Amino acid sequence: MNNQITRIFIDIVIFCAFIFTSIYIYQVYGEDIKGWFTQEERIVMFVQNLAVSVTVADDVEERRMGLSHTESLEDLEGKLFVFDAEGYHRMWMKDMRFPIDMIFINNELEIVDIVENVLPETYPLTFTSSDPARFVLETNAFFAKTFKVKEGQHVIIPPRYLPGDLQENLQE
Where are the alpha helices (DSSP H) in the chain? Predict the structure, then answer.
C-alpha cells in the first residue's frame, strides 16, 4: 500500500512538472511555436537593391487581415498585398499594434506613392495612393526614410507571385 501511494505521488509530481514546463515553454516561445504551425510562407522581394522578406496577402481574406494582430516586424520584413487589378486600393489600420509605412506599387513594378508612419490610432481612416497601384508593401514605420525608398524606384517581385496577367507580360 505504501509503495502504491509513493507511485501515485511520483506520477502527480511528474504530471505537474510537465504542465509547468509546458506553460513556461509557451510563455517564452509561444509566438515561434505558432509560426511553425501557421507556416506563413516568406519570399524575398527587392526594393531597389534592398532585400525585403515578406509574407504575401493575395486573396480577399488575407488582405483583410493584413498585419492585424502581428506583434512586430523586423527591420527588413513586411507584408506584400497583391490585388487582382490596378486601382485605388484602400488600406486601414484595424487591429494594428504598431505604426507602418505603406508603399504603393503599380503594374510596372514602380513605386507610385508612399504613405509614411501611419499610426494604429488612425483607424477607421483609410489610405490610398495618388496613382493606381497593384501592390502595397507594408513595412515598419520610417522604413522608406531609413532606406531612402522613393517614388519612381522599381521593385522586383518573384515572378511566380505576380498575378497571371503580369506573368504573361514577362514572357512577351
Answer: 2-38, 60-65, 143-146, 164-171
